[in-house]
Amino acid sequence: MSEIFLTYLNGPDIAKLALSDAEILAAVENGLRAQGQGQTVIEPRVHLIPESSDKGHFNVLRGVVKPLGFAGVKVVGDFVENYQRGLPSEMALLNLFDPETGMPKAILDAGGITDMRTGALTAIGAKHLARKGSRVLGHIGARGTAYWNVRLLNHLYDFDEIRVHSRRPESRKAFAERLSADLGKPVVATDDWESCVRGADIVVEASRLPRPEPMLKTAWIKKGAFVVPYGTMSAVELSLTDIMDKMVVDDWGQCRKGLPFGALRAHVDSDRLTEQNLHAELGQIVAGLKPGRETDEETILLWHRGLSLSDIALGAAMLEKAAQLGIGQRLQFA
Q: By its UniProt entry, which PANTHER family does this protein fall under (predicted)?
């Protein structure tokens, strides 16, 4: 049998790659386009809960992106109280394989990948579904994915006003300060949900609630806004879907009835969001098969659960750049 080697990219390796905002967005959009064109395989995520969902759980995401020549499995831990131990709330590994032979190709530290691809999906959704003249962003949540939401949205829209809020005053203040420094513009940390969200052109709800609670009020959403709720536990009212002209998801298979968790879980279970009133999956819009925003008056919602395809697409882009720059470790498998 021939010797088999794989590439390992650890956290410092991925930091050295320094993917630009444009590189991140292009990689994730390529994965979405492949999905829309039917060139992918995606399995609904599964969960491993060691003790209780209040304390944390593991997400296991699986998929194949045929044009890239990779199958992938990502395991990500999501433990909300990790900050008390000085640890990130999310840590992950992405495993990439040859889909023709099953041969292992690479292992990547996927904590950063998870954050980047989540932010990229939010931003690509806004590219196709938000008003072109959107000037105000209201963002709830300050966890890892939140940074890339704001950074990549601002890359596309160069907002006049960015508001952020999170449960802990110290975290929202530090988050606003980091964004202000990195984006070169003021970012306001608000004291409450309403002052963050009311009247914003783009609203992102990425909160970290221990249990479902309707913190974001439908009345605060202005006509024509683009709204992205994606917390594990729902923070929105049941009436949110009633005001939407279009509802879009990343993958209906991960949103349908019978699955746990998610910002719109109660809306699906009560038939407020169904396969029949769903406008499209985002990949169909990126591929040009379904329209995105068609008028400034449309109020549009995107619910993304997290795509293994985006992890794989971003991981593939990182591997390609690492090979060009000579970054990473070569590990013998067999």
A: KETIMINE REDUCTASE MU-CRYSTALLIN
